[in-house]
Protein backbone atom coordinates (compact mmCIF):
# COMPACT_ATOMS: atom_id res chain seq x y z
CA UNK A 1 0.00 0.00 0.00
CA UNK A 2 2.80 2.45 0.81
CA UNK A 3 5.56 3.59 -1.49
CA UNK A 4 9.00 4.80 -0.62
CA UNK A 5 9.40 8.55 -0.49
CA UNK A 6 12.62 10.49 -0.05
CA UNK A 7 12.43 12.04 3.41
CA UNK A 8 15.07 14.48 4.65
CA UNK A 9 17.14 13.27 7.58
CA UNK A 10 17.46 15.25 10.80
CA UNK A 11 21.01 16.15 9.78
CA UNK A 12 19.78 17.52 6.46
CA UNK A 13 17.10 19.56 8.21
CA UNK A 14 19.66 20.96 10.61
CA UNK A 15 22.00 21.90 7.76
CA UNK A 16 19.15 23.52 5.86
CA UNK A 17 18.32 25.67 8.87
CA UNK A 18 21.89 26.89 9.16
CA UNK A 19 21.51 29.56 6.47
CA UNK A 20 24.92 28.87 4.95
CA UNK A 21 26.76 28.81 8.27
CA UNK A 22 29.91 26.71 8.65
CA UNK A 23 29.26 23.01 9.35
CA UNK A 24 30.79 23.24 12.83
CA UNK A 25 28.51 26.10 13.79
CA UNK A 26 25.48 24.29 12.36
CA UNK A 27 26.33 21.19 14.41
CA UNK A 28 26.79 23.19 17.61
CA UNK A 29 23.51 25.04 17.12
CA UNK A 30 21.69 21.80 16.38
CA UNK A 31 23.27 20.21 19.47
CA UNK A 32 21.82 23.01 21.56
CA UNK A 33 18.40 22.63 19.93
CA UNK A 34 18.38 18.87 20.56
CA UNK A 35 19.39 19.49 24.18
CA UNK A 36 16.68 22.13 24.48
CA UNK A 37 14.09 19.62 23.22
CA UNK A 38 15.27 17.15 25.86
CA UNK A 39 15.12 19.82 28.56
CA UNK A 40 11.60 20.81 27.52
CA UNK A 41 10.59 17.16 27.70
CA UNK A 42 12.03 16.82 31.21
CA UNK A 43 11.21 20.20 32.74
CA UNK A 44 8.61 21.98 30.59
CA UNK A 45 9.03 25.53 29.19
CA UNK A 46 8.94 27.45 32.47
CA UNK A 47 11.55 25.29 34.24
CA UNK A 48 13.88 24.88 31.29
CA UNK A 49 16.96 27.02 31.87
CA UNK A 50 20.07 27.78 29.84
CA UNK A 51 22.21 25.98 32.41
CA UNK A 52 20.08 22.85 32.12
CA UNK A 53 20.25 22.95 28.34
CA UNK A 54 24.03 23.34 28.16
CA UNK A 55 24.45 20.61 30.77
CA UNK A 56 22.48 18.21 28.57
CA UNK A 57 24.41 19.39 25.50
CA UNK A 58 27.76 19.03 27.23
CA UNK A 59 28.73 22.57 26.23
CA UNK A 60 29.86 25.66 28.13
CA UNK A 61 27.18 28.19 29.15
CA UNK A 62 28.87 31.03 27.29
CA UNK A 63 28.41 29.39 23.91
CA UNK A 64 24.63 29.89 23.97
CA UNK A 65 24.85 33.63 23.31
CA UNK A 66 26.66 32.98 20.02
CA UNK A 67 23.53 31.26 18.69
CA UNK A 68 20.56 32.64 20.65
CA UNK A 69 19.87 36.07 22.07
CA UNK A 70 17.94 34.70 25.04
CA UNK A 71 16.43 31.61 26.58
CA UNK A 72 13.12 32.51 24.93
CA UNK A 73 14.81 32.60 21.51
CA UNK A 74 16.28 29.17 22.11
CA UNK A 75 12.89 27.71 23.11
CA UNK A 76 11.31 29.21 19.99
CA UNK A 77 14.11 27.77 17.85
CA UNK A 78 13.41 24.30 19.27
CA UNK A 79 9.72 24.54 18.41
CA UNK A 80 10.51 25.98 14.96
CA UNK A 81 12.82 23.04 14.31
CA UNK A 82 10.10 20.51 15.21
CA UNK A 83 7.56 22.37 13.08
CA UNK A 84 9.94 22.40 10.10
CA UNK A 85 10.74 18.73 10.60
CA UNK A 86 7.03 17.86 10.60
CA UNK A 87 6.46 19.85 7.43
CA UNK A 88 9.41 18.29 5.58
CA UNK A 89 8.99 14.70 6.77
CA UNK A 90 5.20 14.40 6.93
CA UNK A 91 3.29 17.11 5.08
CA UNK A 92 5.36 17.30 1.90
CA UNK A 93 5.74 13.55 1.20
CA UNK A 94 2.03 12.97 1.81
CA UNK A 95 0.94 15.96 -0.28
CA UNK A 96 3.00 14.61 -3.18
CA UNK A 97 0.68 11.57 -3.27
CA UNK A 98 -2.65 13.36 -2.93
CA UNK A 99 -4.00 11.93 -6.20
CA UNK A 100 -3.61 8.44 -4.66
CA UNK A 101 -5.53 9.03 -1.42
CA UNK A 102 -5.34 5.47 -0.07
CA UNK A 103 -1.56 5.44 -0.45
CA UNK A 104 -1.29 8.99 0.90
CA UNK A 105 -3.44 8.34 3.97
CA UNK A 106 -1.57 5.12 4.71
CA UNK A 107 1.73 6.99 4.46
CA UNK A 108 0.35 9.79 6.61
CA UNK A 109 -0.43 7.37 9.42
CA UNK A 110 3.00 5.72 9.13
CA UNK A 111 4.92 9.02 9.17
CA UNK A 112 2.79 10.68 11.85
CA UNK A 113 3.53 7.78 14.21
CA UNK A 114 7.14 7.25 13.16
CA UNK A 115 9.58 7.38 16.12
CA UNK A 116 11.60 10.13 14.39
CA UNK A 117 8.52 12.38 14.53
CA UNK A 118 6.49 10.98 17.42
CA UNK A 119 9.14 10.19 20.02
CA UNK A 120 8.07 10.80 23.64
CA UNK A 121 10.50 13.71 23.98
CA UNK A 122 9.33 15.47 20.81
CA UNK A 123 5.62 14.90 21.41
CA UNK A 124 5.91 16.26 24.95
CA UNK A 125 7.45 19.47 23.59
CA UNK A 126 4.44 20.08 21.32
CA UNK A 127 2.08 19.60 24.25
CA UNK A 128 4.17 21.58 26.72
CA UNK A 129 4.01 24.66 24.49
CA UNK A 130 0.31 24.16 23.87
CA UNK A 131 -0.56 23.46 27.50
CA UNK A 132 1.41 26.26 29.17
CA UNK A 133 -0.46 29.55 28.93
CA UNK A 134 2.69 31.66 28.73
CA UNK A 135 3.90 29.68 25.69
CA UNK A 136 0.61 29.27 23.85
CA UNK A 137 0.99 32.39 21.72
CA UNK A 138 4.42 31.29 20.52
CA UNK A 139 2.90 27.93 19.58
CA UNK A 140 0.13 29.57 17.56
CA UNK A 141 2.54 31.91 15.78
CA UNK A 142 4.94 29.12 14.82
CA UNK A 143 2.60 26.15 14.35
CA UNK A 144 -0.85 27.60 13.78
CA UNK A 145 -0.56 27.76 9.98
CA UNK A 146 1.06 24.31 9.78
CA UNK A 147 -1.77 22.86 11.89
CA UNK A 148 -4.26 24.38 9.43
CA UNK A 149 -2.27 23.04 6.47
CA UNK A 150 -2.26 19.57 8.00
CA UNK A 151 -6.03 19.61 8.59
CA UNK A 152 -6.63 20.91 5.06
CA UNK A 153 -4.47 18.14 3.59
CA UNK A 154 -6.36 15.43 5.49
CA UNK A 155 -9.69 16.91 4.33
CA UNK A 156 -8.46 17.04 0.71
CA UNK A 157 -7.34 13.40 0.82
CA UNK A 158 -10.64 12.37 2.37
CA UNK A 159 -12.66 14.20 -0.28
CA UNK A 160 -10.60 12.60 -3.04
CA UNK A 161 -11.09 9.14 -1.59
CA UNK A 162 -14.84 9.69 -1.23
CA UNK A 163 -14.98 10.77 -4.87
CA UNK A 164 -12.94 7.79 -6.07
CA UNK A 165 -14.96 5.24 -4.08
CA UNK A 166 -18.36 6.80 -4.72
CA UNK A 167 -19.14 6.93 -1.00
CA UNK A 168 -20.83 10.30 -1.34
CA UNK A 169 -22.96 9.73 1.76
CA UNK A 170 -19.83 10.39 3.84
CA UNK A 171 -18.98 13.83 5.19
CA UNK A 172 -15.35 14.54 4.31
CA UNK A 173 -14.86 17.08 7.11
CA UNK A 174 -16.23 14.68 9.72
CA UNK A 175 -14.11 11.76 8.49
CA UNK A 176 -10.98 13.94 8.43
CA UNK A 177 -11.68 15.27 11.91
CA UNK A 178 -12.10 11.70 13.12
CA UNK A 179 -8.70 10.65 11.75
CA UNK A 180 -6.99 13.71 13.20
CA UNK A 181 -8.62 12.93 16.55
CA UNK A 182 -7.41 9.32 16.44
CA UNK A 183 -3.86 10.43 15.70
CA UNK A 184 -3.97 13.05 18.46
CA UNK A 185 -5.13 10.49 21.04
CA UNK A 186 -2.32 8.14 20.00
CA UNK A 187 0.19 10.99 20.33
CA UNK A 188 -1.07 11.78 23.82
CA UNK A 189 -0.40 8.19 24.83
CA UNK A 190 3.12 8.35 23.41
CA UNK A 191 3.92 11.47 25.47
CA UNK A 192 3.55 9.50 28.71
CA UNK A 193 5.50 6.38 27.75
CA UNK A 194 9.09 5.27 27.40
CA UNK A 195 10.12 4.40 23.85
CA UNK A 196 10.79 0.76 24.71
CA UNK A 197 7.17 0.36 25.86
CA UNK A 198 5.61 1.76 22.67
CA UNK A 199 4.25 -0.77 20.21
CA UNK A 200 4.49 1.26 17.01
CA UNK A 201 2.87 -1.32 14.73
CA UNK A 202 -0.10 -1.55 17.09
CA UNK A 203 -0.56 2.23 16.99
CA UNK A 204 -0.45 2.27 13.19
CA UNK A 205 -2.93 -0.64 13.11
CA UNK A 206 -5.38 1.26 15.32
CA UNK A 207 -5.31 4.34 13.08
CA UNK A 208 -5.72 2.24 9.95
CA UNK A 209 -8.60 0.37 11.59
CA UNK A 210 -10.45 3.68 11.82
CA UNK A 211 -9.92 4.33 8.10
CA UNK A 212 -10.90 0.76 7.28
CA UNK A 213 -14.14 1.12 9.22
CA UNK A 214 -15.06 4.19 7.14
CA UNK A 215 -13.78 2.88 3.80
CA UNK A 216 -14.23 -0.93 3.83
CA UNK A 217 -11.86 -2.76 1.53
CA UNK A 218 -9.54 0.21 0.99
CA UNK A 219 -7.08 -0.31 3.85
CA UNK A 220 -6.20 -4.02 4.17
CA UNK A 221 -5.92 -5.41 7.67
CA UNK A 222 -2.41 -6.52 8.69
CA UNK A 223 -1.70 -10.22 8.40
CA UNK A 224 -1.63 -11.65 11.89
CA UNK A 225 1.00 -14.14 12.78
CA UNK A 226 -0.42 -17.62 13.26
CA UNK A 227 0.00 -18.93 16.74
CA UNK A 228 1.58 -22.31 16.87
CA UNK A 229 -0.53 -25.03 18.39
CA UNK A 230 1.16 -27.19 20.99
CA UNK A 231 1.87 -30.69 19.73
CA UNK A 232 -0.74 -33.32 20.51
CA UNK A 233 0.11 -35.70 23.22
CA UNK A 234 0.40 -39.29 22.05
CA UNK A 235 -2.21 -41.73 23.23
Structure report:
- It is a single chain.
- With 235 residues, this protein is mainly alpha-helical.
- It has one domain (10-214): Tetracycline Repressor, domain 2 (Orthogonal Bundle), CATH 1.10.357.
- 65% of the residues lie in helices and 0% in strands.
- The chain has 9 helices and no strands.
- The protein has helices spanning 10-16, 23-43, 50-57, 71-95, 101-112, 120-131, 133-165, 172-191, 200-214.
- The longest helix has 33 residues, at 133-165.
- It is elongated.
- The relative contact order is 0.11.
- The model is unreliable at 1-8, 15-19 and 225-229 (pLDDT under 50).
Offer a concise description of the structure.
The protein is built from nine helices and no strands.
Amino acid sequence: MSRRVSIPSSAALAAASGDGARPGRVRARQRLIEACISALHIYGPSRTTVSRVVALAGLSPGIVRFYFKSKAAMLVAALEYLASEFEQRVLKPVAALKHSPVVALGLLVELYLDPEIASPRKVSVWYSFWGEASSRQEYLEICGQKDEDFAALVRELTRELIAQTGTTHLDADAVALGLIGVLEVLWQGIAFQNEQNIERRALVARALAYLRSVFPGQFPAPVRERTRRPPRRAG
